[in-house]
């Protein structure tokens, strides 16, 4: 028997059939995505915490640490645990912020969670460490200390430089065989030797036939390293420069095989400091013996190690500051390109801080002090300047020591001069 549907019955059957087809399509689509969404949606990316698992604050000093995470949608970040007094966490900015109170030194374990509705949530065990200013950084070397031996005899550091990547360069001298040689070491930020530099992080370079001592270091913008000091042959020392590639090998495009020696006076010449001009030229400061006394000495080199003949006389300048010996130990270049040296001079009775400023061509800047020279007596016996720096307002700060008498002890000495 054939059953005849009425108009309304036929319309009802068609509607049910369409709903069934839609239900089948929905099941097929949901099944093609890889399974269940229990615990969160599959749309987007699960969160990942990208900030370090440890941060450092200092007692009494304002600090900030940003906790960061990636994910889509942008995750919310919670931080739970006990914080040091006067330090808070802002869940909107994801910043740990504040000035730890005195007595809060220690480690604070925290739990960080990032979630955005996409599984799984990201979690991190975070440690906030509060330290005391001036204490050793125990994450560096062993308890904040590192010692490095180049051989079986004396080694010493006389100058330091910090690379843009945070690695530390230390230059000085190492006693190899019968004489000292230039010595250079590079350390990772944790104080370990950088095995990618030289031989296991260390380089030694002989220059003269006798002792060679490094006292100054400068980093070029291309990462090459310039070390300055003295090289001795037949008991007569000359200015000495060595340029190294970023891996510690000698830069053979500089001087002769990476080395330059420059005689200035008739006897001992020693470079104590080096600075890099904006145009890539190198200015080197120290002292030179004129046959009777030592004078301030300044030499400028082109970027290839050749003397800059447009500077002084054949690239060299010597300056007697007072009636006796004069020694330059520090150098700084002003924003206008003028060069200031700092050291000490002897006036037949005592030694005083001494400064000399030069124009960009090596002539004395007669607008500075008396004909380009300044001598400052601090005590009545002996003072010597070894460091110099320029403040943001152009004032010149000089540091060294004062020895009040032959039977007393040295003290820090600091002076500041108008530019």
Polypeptide structure, described:
With 419 residues, this protein is mainly β. The protein is built from one helix and 28 strands. The chain has a four-stranded mixed sheet, with no helix packed on it. Strand 26 and strand 27 form a beta hairpin. The N terminus is likely disordered.
Mean pLDDT comes to: 91
- Total of helices: 1
Q: What fold name goes in the CATH topology slot of the largest domain?
A: Neuraminidase
**Main sheet?**
4 strands, mixed
Using DSSP, what is the number of strands?
A: 28
Taking all Cα atoms into account, the compactness measure Rg is: 34 Å
Order of helices and strands: HEEEEEEEEEEEEEEEEEEEEEEEEEEEE
Taking the alpha carbons of the first and last residues, their distance comes to: 117 Å
**Helix/sheet category:** mainly beta
CATH class division of the largest domain: Mainly Beta
Which strand order do you get reading across the main beta sheet?
2-9-8-5
Total number of distinct structural domains: 2
Describe, in short, the structure shown:
With 419 residues, the protein is mainly beta.
Pick out its properties.
single chain; 419 residues; mainly beta; Immunoglobulin-like; Neuraminidase; 4-stranded mixed beta sheet; 4-stranded antiparallel beta sheet; 28 strands; 6% helix; disordered N terminus
